[in-house]
Amino acid sequence: MSEVFSSPVLRVEQPRRGPFAKSRYKVLDGDGVVLAIAAPTDEQGEALAMRGLFPGKSNLDARAVLLTTPDGEPLLIVDKQSGWEYTEVFQPDGERVGSFVTERAGRRYVIYDDDGTLIGAVEVDVPRNNFEVTDADGVKVAHVRKKWAGLATHLLTTADKYAVDISDPVREPLRTMVVMTAIAMDMSLHEAKEIT
């Protein structure tokens, strides 16, 4: 994955849509070139349609997104399990890249590689807008920041934007997991915008 996401500065954005349109993202480099597009996986089509009709606290729902190149070549799958506890990242062939596991809900997540070895952690600030990613030794390797777009945008659309600044070099698979931090944290912490 490092060749696709090789830029040390990336942006992850959700398109501006109504509050029920979830789990769609664009990954761009620092110059605004689209590197990847993420959309819900096909298996979720019916469940997503039903959630739009009968919304609930969507950050508790299980869902997955498939990242592809702009030309449609599959890159990664981000699979968020039900609840806040567990999100996995897979290659298109089903091989696991790693996982985010909740250590303290909404505050700290640990990152494991495909065989369960601890490779890093994500520390979350109180407003859940800044995510400091460290390696297994506690050394900061990246900062992911959710940009504030205003109250109306926050409440009425899915238009979240994240800046990902990576302190290169970061070895794989941690580098891929760093890039996926914005999507995993958004799916876990920021998608429940329904007024219920």
TrEMBL record:
Pfam family, one: Scramblase
InterPro entries to which the protein is assigned, alphabetical: Scramblase, Tubby-like_C
GO molecular function, one term: phospholipid scramblase activity
Source taxon at top rank: Bacteria
Name the record gives this protein: Scramblase
